[in-house]
Amino acid sequence: MGSGVALFTLSLLLVTHHAHSAIGVNWGTMSFHKLKPSTVVDLLKANKITKVKLFDSNPDALRALMGTGIQVMISIPNELLSTFSSDLFVQQNLSRFMGKGGADIRYVAVGNEPFLTSYGGAYQNYVFPAMVNLQQSLVKANLASYVKLVVPCNADAYESNVPSQGTFRPELTQIMTQLVSFLSSIGSPFVVNIYPFLSLYQNSDFPQDFAFFEGSSHPVLDGPNVYYNAFDGNFDTLVSALAKIGYGQMPIVIGEIGWPTDGAVGANLTAARVFNQGLINHLLSNKGTPLRPGSPPEDVYLFGLLDEGAKSTLPGNFERHWGIFSFDGQAKYRLNLGLGNRGLKNAENVQYLPSRWCVAHPAKDMTLVTDHLRLACSQADCTTLNDGGSCSQLGEKDNISYAFNSYYQLQMQNEKSCDFDGLGMVTFLDPSVGECRFLVGVTDKSSSAELMARWGIYHICIGLVVWALTRCYIL
């Protein structure tokens, strides 16, 4: 998505009649409520996920993955491409975690969408030198035959009105030719991120049904080929661009693709399920695309595994809602990944904070609440309250309660964080309304911390009882 955040990518092995194709899921870690790495790894194993990609080289994640047999892709964030030491990187992030019983690291991603148009070329000149240095370091460490380098690119790296005329952007032609030649020489695939949702979101004239896999009343005609979905058209545009620089048979991996469930019109549970299931079924059919019939991408990584409430909303509020699981590892919708399970398995043994919420005090005047709302939503995630969000239809007081609670959970239910100059109060009754879920945070604290939390609950309960008796107000 063009961000330098820590992201994981998971991959599920899908067996077809002709080839092994893998469905992947990006696991992002930009969350206010992070699950333990061990909990996430258990989630991967429960769903038979066999590959994971980390957009940095988080040591806690790598330790949790050791001995699991899950294949790993680690990455170097864009902002480090110009400064990192390749020898030191290999030593600290590969060699020390690999070996018998270690992490099965297969790929290193050199940046993430470093040629994105919005970056204005800021990272463009650092990618190739970084790759050359890394390859030399892998050779010295005797890892070059096992660990491969890749560069995840955004689909804006190429352009065309029809797939057969696809070319790389003029300013990228030289560096792409150099890059692809190098990737080919070391046996690495071309990795690209494709987002039909963004095409629909950014263009009001984009045919909605063309974004999905159910067939379209607005197909794209390209000579003898007909395209009924945006994915195939985008993929073949890249195939054409690669062919024009002499690498028409280059293996292609889809690094990111998915559909958000909230934060924008068209971002909802139904659309996400239909898109992702349609994509999986399309891949399982082994149909391929018009320019690569019978040859689907080697791997396709769904974006993403978990919602990330701390991501930047600059592209849109939907950025925090791409997960097929909510932040706490609970499946949002039914999805058959083609692995024998008819649906997703939820994370187990998640350590939640106590079941309590912060809401707007029902007996208080909210006239002066504006500054408190601004504070709460500047730090916590309130994106579901905006137009198109699952909580956008709440009444005024429920809106306030949602913002208060988001901040309260972010502050790990600190008692003072629900004060808001007396406008907030703690409740033990779940204030969720319909599809609008008022979250309870998660924690990775020890059992002693849990005892302290329970002791805090006891005091809150006593306080509520006294308050109710003295004020004669029924909660």
TrEMBL record:
Q: What class of enzyme is it?
A: hydrolase
Report the membrane topology from the UniProt record: Lipid-anchor; GPI-anchor
| Keyword Glycosyltransferase attributed | no
Q: Which family does it belong to?
A: Belongs to the glycosyl hydrolase 17 family.
Source superkingdom: Eukaryota
The record's SMART domains line, in alphabetical order, gives: X8
Query: Which UniProt keywords are given for this protein, alphabetically ordered?
Result: Cell membrane, Disulfide bond, Glycoprotein, Glycosidase, GPI-anchor, Hydrolase, Lipoprotein, Membrane, Plant defense, Signal
Pfam families from the entry? Answer: Glyco_hydro_17, X8
Domain spans labelled X8: 356-438
Name the UniProt record assigns to this protein: glucan endo-1,3-beta-D-glucosidase
User: Any idea which GO molecular function terms this record carries?
Assistant: glucan endo-1,3-beta-D-glucosidase activity
Gene Ontology CC terms, in alphabetical order = plasma membrane; side of membrane
Q: Where is the signal peptide?
A: 1-21
EC number, as in UniProt? 3.2.1.39
- Catalysed conversion reaction: Hydrolysis of (1->3)-beta-D-glucosidic linkages in (1->3)-beta-D-glucans
A GO BP term here is: carbohydrate metabolic process
* Compartments (UniProt record): Cell membrane
Q: What is its main location?
A: membrane
